[in-house]
Design a protein that fits this description.
Helices cover 21% and strands 41% of the residues. The protein has one helix at residues 2-15; strands at residues 27-36, 47-59, 62-65. The chain contains 1 helix and 3 strands; from the N terminus they run αβββ. The chain has 66 residues and is of the alpha+beta class.
Length: 66
């Protein structure tokens, strides 16, 4: 299982577009999901969540994200 995760991460990293393609004024929008599983001793409920992000490239290699 661990080997499969490393292989998937390597495949994703190798197929991503190079960062050099970003230029000043470019805007990025993204979404993500998450699942948090707590230890039963903590008495917290497991949670599923969604989120988003917005990034603006101020300079060619400098972005502000939130």
């Amino acid at each position: 299982m661990r080997r499969m995760r490393w292989m998937t991460a390597a495949l994703v990293a190798l197929t991503m577009a190079p960062l050099a393609a970003q230029s000043a004024g470019t805007i990025e929008v993204g979404a993500f999901g998450r699942f948090t599983k707590y230890d039963t001793d903590l008495n917290f409920d497991d949670r599923v969540g969604l989120g988003g992000r917005l990034g603006i490239f101020v300079l060619r290699n400098l972005a502000l994200e939130g």
